[in-house]
Each structure stands twice: as C-alpha cells, then as structure tokens.
Prior knowledge:
six-stranded mixed sheet, binds adenosine-5'-triphosphate, 10 strands, 7 helices, Rossmann fold, alpha/beta
Amino acid sequence: MSPELLRLSGVSFAYDRERPVLRGADFVLHAGERVAVTGPNGAGKTTFLHVMVGLAKPSAGTIEAFGKSRTSEGDFPEVRRRAGLLFQDADDQLFCPTVAEDVAFGPLNLGKSRAEAREITRRTLARLGLQGFEDRITYKLSGGQKRLVALAAVLAMEPEVLLLDEPTTALDTETEERMVDILNSLPQAMVIVSHDRDFLAKVANRWVRLENGALREAASA
Ligand SMILES: Nc1ncnc2c1ncn2[C@@H]1O[C@H](COP(=O)(O)OP(=O)(O)OP(=O)(O)O)[C@@H](O)[C@H]1O
C-alpha cells in the first residue's frame, strides 16, 4: 500500500450547533490517489477540505497529516504548506497587485531568496501556459486566468498534496482541457471537489461521496 498522507477519523464539525456539517467523517488519502469528492450543494465538501488543513476546527475526531497527529493551531501551518489548498474562489487566494507577487508570496514566505522566488514563479507560470504573465495586474485577469494563477500560487509552494475546490469554476472548455492536462502531469496526491463529472472522470482514480455528514466510497462517474 502507498504511504498514508492524510487521515480524518470520526471528525465532526458544525458552524451552527443545530446543523452539523460533518458527523463522524472518516477519510484516508494515500500517495498516488486522485480522489473525486462529490455530493449535494451544501453537503460540506468545502468544509471537509478546510478541516483537513486546520481552517475549520472539528468538535470531535482526529486529524493525522504526514505521519503526525495534528491537534493545535501550531500544528497546521506545516500541514498547509505540505497540502496546498486551491480555494473555491480565486479572490480568496490572490491578494497582491501583480501575478508575480501572488505566485512568489509562498516561496518568499518559505524563506527562498528573491532570485529563487523569481525563478520558481517564472517556471511555474510557464508550466501552466502563463509565460509572461508576471507583470499582469491580478484583479484585471479573466476568471479562468485567475484560476490558473491561483493554481500557480499553490504549486509554487511545492506541496505534496493538492486539495482542489471546484478547480474548473470559471474555465472555458479550452482552459478546462488545459487544467486536465496540468493535473494529469502532476505527481501529487489530490482531493478534488467538483460537480463536473466529465472533468472528474478525466482526472480521478478514486471516487467518494459526501452526504449526511460522512464520506462513502462511490462508483466512478
Ligand atoms: N462560514 C460559514 N458560516 C456558517 N455556515 C456556513 C459557513 N460556510 C458554510 N456554511 C454552511 O455549511 C454547509 C456546508 O457548506 P460547504 O460550503 O462546506 O458545502 P459544499 O458541499 O462545499 O457546497 P457547494 O457544493 O454548494 O459548494 C452549508 O449549509 C453552508 O451554508
């Protein structure tokens, strides 16, 4: 069996105590897996990704990541570095004036020099077909371009796991095909939340469904 990367055991979470979102959810991610997560609107798919990286704190259950139990706030910065989250809304990910600043932000934060961060930014943008985008003004990009730049910002951190929340939102057919090719060329294990079953069928090798607060293995598309 491939190494275990993330494990949620008996995780419960509620924004409002009356309406729990996760109820004793169990999930394990192994290296090499690209897990499609489907489920009705409001089932808690985004919440599930956020719990894995400590952006939502469970009321019960345990989280293990990269071989360690993660309990306190201080445990999660490392998890967020190693498990990169592509937010559902690119505007939550991109907050700098230019594309280069947004993509270089993570590497600089990890202690890379300016020259190293510039090189990582150039390489990552080129890999996503965004060569020459460095000086573009982020807020003026199209929805699809923003999505790819947000992915570049995640990949620039060289994460071991990718958590992708609706990665094809705002993408036209051509850009969606590019996203498929990019994801299929990457080595990382992935958890991919999406309502787009055709897209998922092209990238996923395992399917789970989130319903009634728990995850269940599911048949593919
Ligand atoms: N910050 C918040 N405060 C209060 N309730 C929230 C918050 N975020 C989400 N919720 C509620 O929690 C439930 C789960 O939301 P979540 O976004 O995780 O679902 P989802 O499966 O990702 O939905 P969708 O498919 O529509 O994106 C929903 O009922 C939602 O309204």
